[in-house]
């Protein structure tokens, strides 16, 4: 059985979106067998909106299997919907809870 790395990347500041996405790109390139999940909440969701400066890299990463999840609490508090983001974005009820639950399952945690 081949070991698959599982990595969460925390995004709560829009100015760190490029750093987070490049970290995801490096993980995919460097580890090969890797599950990467970018968890965005609070101000971090702004860095992943449709038409943003990182759109091409986000599209590439999504095509390589990187999962992007948005916090529903944040979307609700900002009057945003999942339609404000690329169609491959998913939602979770709480970004913070997602980080905790995945770490309890053994996922590695990265906060750039």
UniProtKB/TrEMBL annotation:
<dbReference type="Pfam" id="PF02635">
    <property type="entry name" value="DsrE"/>
</dbReference>
<dbReference type="InterPro" id="IPR027396">
    <property type="entry name" value="DsrEFH-like"/>
</dbReference>
<dbReference type="InterPro" id="IPR003787">
    <property type="entry name" value="Sulphur_relay_DsrE/F-like"/>
</dbReference>
<protein>
    <submittedName>
        <fullName>Uncharacterized protein</fullName>
    </submittedName>
</protein>
